[in-house]
Amino acid sequence: MSNEPQVFSFAELQFSPTAFLFEGAKQAGTNASIFVVRTPPGGGVDLHTHPYPETFVLLEGSGRWTAGDTVVDLEPDHVLVVPAETPHGFRNTGDRPLLVVSVHEAGMLDQTFLDGD
What we know:
The chain is mostly beta strands. Helices cover 7% and strands 49% of the residues. It has helices spanning 10-13, 24-27; strands at residues 14-16, 19-23, 33-39, 44-49, 54-60, 63-67, 70-74, 78-82, 88-92, 98-104, 112-113. The strands form two sheets. It has a six-stranded antiparallel sheet.
């Protein structure tokens, strides 16, 4: 990979209508991946696991995270760290979009949804 700084637009990182995914190993030769998610009210991500920790940074909105047996309500300017192999997911509990950045401690996304998808 390049020794120069690299810039990526969200247009290049579109993963779904509400999410953008940067996979560091594939796109920049790094060992971290990042999701930026704008989840509408009532929306969320179902329970899933990763073989590595995931760190969530809540920037806007309010949401409820489930991580193992723990349920937490988060507001902006909070960080939640979910250990590896811990079932987790979240829902937007507010009336405006939830803006979340999640950092995956791996160069490629590796997730298993618990409903089998």
